[in-house]
């Protein structure tokens, strides 16, 4: 039973490391009758046809695979492992700093950018209004939103299949803020890994209280800023500035939103940290099925590195290039050893590349023992990024984007429904005309005010509104009412006639639609 549980954990990890490749096959079972009294395997036999013999159980884990036996974020006694990653330095870190500056600049500037007098990006989930690069998607365009999300997901699948977790390491707001903002604040106030550990173990002196207060106050301020940033994408900067400049009691719900989001971000960056990636994030969990042996990931070149051996001065070295310095483990923010192969916890932050390159430089070996590469490239020196799988995803993506493009181009600014009033019948008028009563609804699919008029194109006839309805539509607004359509009997050839109507704003035709008109049988 215990072995079975362990085997479950094995399957949970996606691992492409050579040392564990032999137990990755789901058809690999242990001959249980021949296992020793600890339940550990005496021999491992792959079952060629995939059958699972009755007297065989999933393979137990040997000590060399023991890293798979537990989650790096949890200690042996079930408590959380709090990681103190060493301050990263090096070429890849410098590149990431530059990229972070660029991405944070874009993130903070974008809410202020406007296109056609509306925000460039807006994700108002509260009112179901979205603006994506000037394209307004209102509640009526749920299909457009659904298709946009679907093509975005297919894009993510394609991107991940080729480039692995590049997004996680470089652009994900969680990693960007955690590693490049909150972690930097922590290093600046509490020092590097060793000093942080000492400080946490030290008694509560005045100095410790001062440092902890400074750190957590800074965390709170940054969390508040991020909460405002998030809200600027949800409600727009104009609404946000009202909350800031006007009395709070006029904006209690939105102000509460800022407070709640500040608390959530503070909790996330001060406490949850790496576990947001390893436990909460669904994208991280999907890596096992999205990536394959050709995906580019941060990987340890086990062909070059193994067998590992510490460096002994004056000794002829016959071992691999890994000198077992554990620097790659010390810098890892998720506490894993990349030499065990690609693991679900790895966010591809590149810190271990820099750490290993520094060591390689020091001992005079070539850099790149840990690098961006793929399992296939390590094994055969060749990487095939364009595979049948990526081709298939690309075709699906092109189809989705084409459909999306067509729907956007052919989309109208208004959507009108005009139905005969329920239970109503045609009316024969004394002047030789027939009337039908209709109810109508006009939806504004833009974010601007629209003043529509409805006209009957064919056959010739008259539209008569019941009362004087105000058809002026606010952005994403709706207007409704009832109207009569009156048509001369002579123009009606059958009991049921198709009518063609148009919606105009001034001289601009916004939409054309059809409905039916009932008349007495000839
Ligand atoms: S294994 Fe390397 S790339 Fe992956 S999270 Fe750890 S330090 Fe970052
Ligand atoms: S940093 Fe490089 S040399 Fe040192 S343990 Fe890691 S892989 Fe081996």
From TrEMBL:
**Cross-referenced PROSITE patterns:** 4FE4S_FER_1, 4FE4S_FER_2
Q: Which residues cross the membrane?
A: 97-115, 142-168, 216-235, 255-272, 392-409
Q: Which domain of life is it from?
A: Bacteria
Residue stretches making up the 4Fe-4S ferredoxin-type domain: 313-341
Q: Which UniProt keywords apply?
A: 4Fe-4S, Electron transport, Iron, Iron-sulfur, Membrane, Metal-binding, Transmembrane, Transmembrane helix, Transport
Q: Has the keyword Iron-sulfur been applied to this entry?
A: yes
**Which cellular components does GO assign to this protein?**
plasma membrane
Q: GO: which molecular function terms?
A: 4 iron, 4 sulfur cluster binding; metal ion binding
Looking at the keywords, is 4Fe-4S present?
A: yes
Return the protein name.
Cytochrome c oxidase accessory protein FixG
Q: Which organism is it from?
A: Dyadobacter koreensis
Source species taxonomy: Bacteria, Pseudomonadati, Bacteroidota, Cytophagia, Cytophagales
């Amino acid at each position: 039973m215990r072995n079975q549980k362990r085997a479950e954990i094995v399957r949970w990890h996606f691992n492409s490391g050579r040392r564990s490749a032999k137990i990755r096959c789901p058809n690999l079972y242990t001959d249980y009758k021949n296992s020793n009294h600890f339940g550990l395997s005496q021999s491992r036999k792959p079952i060629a046809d995939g059958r699972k013999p009755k007297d065989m159980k999933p393979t137990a884990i040997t000590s060399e695979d023991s890293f798979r036996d537990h989650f790096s974020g949890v200690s042996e006694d079930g408590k959380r492992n709090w990681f103190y990653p060493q301050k990263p330095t090096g070429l890849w870190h410098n590149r990431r700093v530059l990229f972070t500056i660029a991405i944070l600049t874009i993130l903070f500037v974008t809410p202020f950018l406007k296109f056609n007098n509306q925000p460039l990006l807006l994700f108002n989930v509260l009112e179901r209004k979205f603006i994506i690069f000037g394209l307004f998607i209102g509640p009526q365009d749920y299909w457009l939103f659904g298709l946009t999300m679907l093509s975005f997901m297919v894009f993510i699948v394609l991107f991940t299949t080729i480039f692995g977790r590049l997004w996680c390491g470089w652009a994900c707001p969680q990693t960007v803020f955690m590693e490049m903002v909150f972690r930097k604040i922590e290093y600046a106030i509490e020092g590097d890994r060793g000093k942080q550990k000492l400080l946490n173990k030290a008694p509560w002196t005045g100095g410790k209280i001062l440092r902890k207060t400074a750190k957590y106050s800074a965390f709170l301020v940054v969390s508040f800023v991020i909460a405002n940033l998030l809200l600027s994408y949800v409600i727009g900067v104009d609404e946000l500035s009202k909350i800031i400049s006007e009395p709070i009691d006029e904006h209690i719900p939105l102000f509460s939103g800022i407070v709640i989001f500040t608390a959530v971000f503070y909790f996330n960056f001060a406490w949850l940290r790496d576990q947001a990636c390893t436990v909460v994030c669904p994208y991280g969990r999907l890596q096992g099925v999205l990536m394959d042996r050709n995906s580019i990931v941060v990987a340890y070149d086990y062909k070059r590195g193994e067998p590992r051996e510490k460096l002994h001065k004056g000794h002829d070295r016959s071992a691999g290039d890994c000198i077992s310095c554990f620097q790659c483990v010390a810098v890892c923010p998720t506490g894993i050893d990349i030499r065990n192969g690609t693991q679900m916890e790895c966010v591809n932050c590149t810190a271990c590349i820099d750490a290993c390159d520094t060591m390689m430089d020091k001992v005079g070996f070539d850099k790149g023992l840990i690098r961006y590469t793929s399992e296939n490239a390590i094994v055969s020196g060749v990487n095939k990024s364009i595979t049948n799988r990526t081709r298939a995803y690309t075709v699906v993506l092109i189809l989705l984007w084409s459909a999306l493009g067509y729907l956007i181009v052919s989309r109208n600014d208004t959507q009108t429904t005009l139905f005969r009033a329920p239970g109503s019948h045609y009316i024969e008028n004394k002047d030789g005309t027939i009337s039908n009563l209709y109810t109508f609804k006009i939806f504004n699919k833009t974010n601007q005010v629209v003043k529509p008029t409805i006209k009957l194109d064919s056959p010739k006839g008259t539209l008569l509104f019941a009362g004087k309805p105000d058809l002026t539509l606010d952005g994403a607004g709706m207007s409704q009412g009832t109207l009569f359509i009156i048509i001369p009997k002579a123009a009606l050839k059958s009991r049921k006639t198709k009518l063609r109507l148009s919606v105009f704003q001034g001289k601009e035709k916004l939409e054309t639609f059809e409905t039916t008109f009932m008349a007495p049988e000839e």
